[in-house]
Amino acid sequence: MPRLSIVALLFFVAAAGKSNSPPAYDLTVTIEPDAGSIAVRGTVDVPLESPAATTFKFNLHDSVTITKLLVDGKRATFTFGTVESPFPMPASRGIVVALPAGAGQNRVRMEIEYSGRLKVLPEFGATEDMLHSMDDQVNSRMVELSPLSSWYPQFGFVQPLQVELALSLPQGWISICSGKKLEERIQDGRALTRWSSPKDTAIMILASPNYKKKSLREAGVNIDIYYTRMPEAFIAQEGTQIAGATNLYSTLLGETNIPAGTIKHIYSPKRKGQGKAGMALPGMIVTSEGLTMEALSQDPKFTMFQWIAHEIAHYWWNFGAGQGDWINEAFAEYYSAIAVQKLSSQAEFQAVMADYRKQAGELPAEAPPLATVPIMEPTSFVVRYYKGSLMLDAVRQLMGDAKFFQASREFFQEYTGKPTGTPEFRTFWNARMRDHKDLVDAWLDSHGGPPARN
């Protein structure tokens, strides 16, 4: 199964904004799978960057046509601009909205309607051209609308979103969305559902006429797994693994936001897509069914345990902003290794760490340090995931388990929900390392592989 192609997690779209409060969405989405089209209407409560702002900007899918745009009840004009995102977004364009006279100074209410037939691009991994690939699909077999396409207006804020969503699909289609399902009914041959997620990080829609659903309650954790072709034994084993990792992290770090108290793992019936476990949002993991089935055909004993544990860890580690997103990935990756250690075996944990050391040791001498590593850079994955994990393991060995896990818990609880970067990480952990704070600095600031002192 290939390495993660773009991102394991999208908890933000652009660089951290200056707003103190998040956008609030109330959207109605109508999807026509056979036509490959979507129609969206609704309102977005938009925080402005400053009282002096004369415009605001968002990213939106370039396949759609905006047919209505009001700001605080007044007609607003807009122009097209560049896309602001650290990720390649080949189906997006920037929308720059001019504020009408008399609009609010801190927040405005945008009413918007748009529709269109989405362009068809290759799935991630289907071609070598990753910059012009996209997992999103709307066709007679499946629907996947993810944050990577900006199918909804996306702003450069990292704070949790407030989302109310109404969805319409043909009768017989099963849908899964961000947040909690409030209603499900059939009307005029359509499958209608309503969803609410008061503290989310993005909006995602998945649907298929062929989904099966396995609901489990393991060790106090509610789990819903959606799939079309996965073996039943694999699904049952996975339920136990999800519950184990969730309970471990809750014990070590405290409670976190899991909408409706249920973890939803969806095997999207695409053929390729992102590798490993794919993408995570609060309480929701989306994985390529095609890649998983391919791995199972090669190894009947194949398991996604550590990869799923990584995505579950993102329910806690989801606040590193911008370049500081390495914080999310380093903690999620290292805690997935801790899950292997605690729930599988010490030998497997040592094998995982040995692989991290090998891959980090092969980094070129000019590879950027953790403190400045960009998100999209050839060595970024190894630096952020594996070198970051090795740093945390070095800190853990020096502090001891009790102090390390207590400090991790305090770090999560102090910064969760706040845009966080390398300076905050450095200040927090240096204070707890006391006479050994140079160790953290050495790991953060060293180019290439692990610092020589390790």
Summarize the structure.
The chain is of the alpha+beta class and 454 residues long. The chain has 9 helices and 20 strands.
CATH-derived architecture of the domain at 318-454: Orthogonal Bundle
In one word, what is the shape? globular
CATH topology of the domain at 318-454: Neutral Protease, domain 2
Determine the mean pLDDT: 90
CATH level 4 superfamily of the domain at 318-454: Neutral Protease Domain 2
Biggest beta sheet attributes: 8 strands, mixed
Radius of gyration: 22 Å
Question: What distinguishing features does this structure have?
Answer:
454 residues, alpha+beta, Neutral Protease, domain 2, eight-stranded mixed β-sheet, five-stranded mixed β-sheet, 29% helix, globular
Textual characterization of the structure:
The protein is α+β, with helices and mostly antiparallel strands. The chain has a domain at 318-454: Neutral Protease Domain 2 (Neutral Protease, domain 2, Orthogonal Bundle). The chain is built from nine helices and 20 strands. Strands 5-4-8-2-1-11-14-13 form an eight-stranded mixed beta sheet, with no helix packed on it. A five-stranded mixed beta sheet has the order 16-17-18-20-19. Strands 9-10-15-12 form a four-stranded antiparallel beta sheet, with no helix packed on it. The longest helix is centred in the middle third of the chain and has 22 residues, at 232-253. The model is unreliable at 1-19 (pLDDT under 50).
Give the helices and strands, then pairings.
Elements: E1 24-32, E2 37-47, E3 55-61, E4 65-71, E5 74-75, E6 78-81, E7 92-98, E8 107-117, E9 137-138, E10 143-145, E11 161-170, E12 174-177, E13 180-187, E14 190-200, E15 205-208, E16 212-218, E17 221-227, H1 232-253, E18 262-268, E19 279-281, E20 284-288, H2 289-298, H3 305-313, H4 325-343, H5 346-361, H6 380-399, H7 401-415, H8 422-433, H9 437-445
